[in-house]
Write a structure and sequence with these properties.
The chain is an alpha/beta fold and 235 residues long. The protein contains 8 helices and 9 strands. α3 crosses α5. The protein is elongated, with a radius of gyration of 22 Å. It starts with a strand and ends with a helix. The structure holds S-adenosylmethionine.
Length: 235
């Protein structure tokens, strides 16, 4: 998968050089290219923002650098890229979104700052790819970088070969619409706290039932909104 990121703070993405995604890049599974939006400015101050038409607080990102950046990045793009603008006013990012994006070959992330990007950029981008405005959640960040990073990590780990054991992806929170069951490792007793005996029983059927019960209990307690009618029947 190819991922292009446009930001005025490209060093935010240095972290993509470490851990699983760093290794995936090294192995050619992920081709991540980070671009400084200011490469497409021509004035002495490398200006990317200006005051909003109609007045109001804050600054708005200018359309010209964004237009040129997106034109350049998508010029050699085949097939059609998904152009993602992180935005608190977008659809909320979920594991289903991550699964969907992991099927695509080319993602472009446009990270806004200030009060956001001139609206016309989204209209122009729609001629270059499939545009998605995606929110990390119902809160406001200072910029799109942290949101883009979260999405890149969630999508990247779904690409075959990135996570060593693909089984570990199947059992995770949100994959089956439930939160994951609790996990334990050695020692069996630690500071007076015991590992649930069923996990030491070697009885795989009993372990699977216990884990499902735990998943349902946790989800009911912490995220009842995730429980659809399918799971209500099992409870
Ligand atoms: N004025 C904008 C609004 O009210 O919708 C918020 C702008 S915010 C300070 C600057 C940038 O941070 C946005 O353009 C977007 O890229 C990013 N951002 C902020 N909150 C976000 C969120 N919850 N999810 C994704 N991106 C977010």
């Amino acid at each position: 998968m190819r991922i292009d990121v446009v930001s005025i703070f490209p060093s935010f993405f240095d972290v993509l050089e470490v851990s699983l995604l760093g290794r995936a890049r090294g192995r050619g599974l992920l081709d991540v290219r980070v671009h400084d939006l200011r490469e497409w400015t021509y004035d002495r101050h490398r200006t990317v923002d200006d005051t909003p038409y109609g007045g109001g607080a804050g600054m708005v990102m200018k359309p010209e650098p964004w237009g040129e950046a997106l034109d350049a990045i998508t010029a050699d793009a085949a097939p059609l890229p998904v152009i993602i603008f992180p935005s608190p006013a977008g659809e909320v990012f979920t594991q289903a979104t991550a699964r969907e994006l992991a099927q695509r070959e080319h993602l472009v992330f446009g990270c806004g700052r200030y009060e956001g990007i001139d609206e016309r950029v989204f209209t122009h981008a729609a001629q270059l790819g499939e545009v998605r405005l995606i929110s990390l959640g119902d809160y406001v960040l200072n910029g799109g970088e942290v949101a883009a990073m979260a999405m890149i990590e969630a999508v990247g780990r779904l690409i075959p070969g990135v996570v060593g054991n693909p089984e570990s992806l199947v059992e995770e929170s949100h994959e089956e619409g439930l939160l994951e069951y609790p996990s334990y490792t050695k020692p069996a007793a630690w500071r007076g706290l015991e590992v649930p005996p069923v996990l030491l029983s070697g009885n795989h059927g009993a372990i699977a039932s216990w884990r499902l019960e735990q998943q349902l209990e946790r989800t009911r307690a912490r995220r009842p909104d995730l429980l659809g009618s399918d799971h209500d029947g099992a409870s």
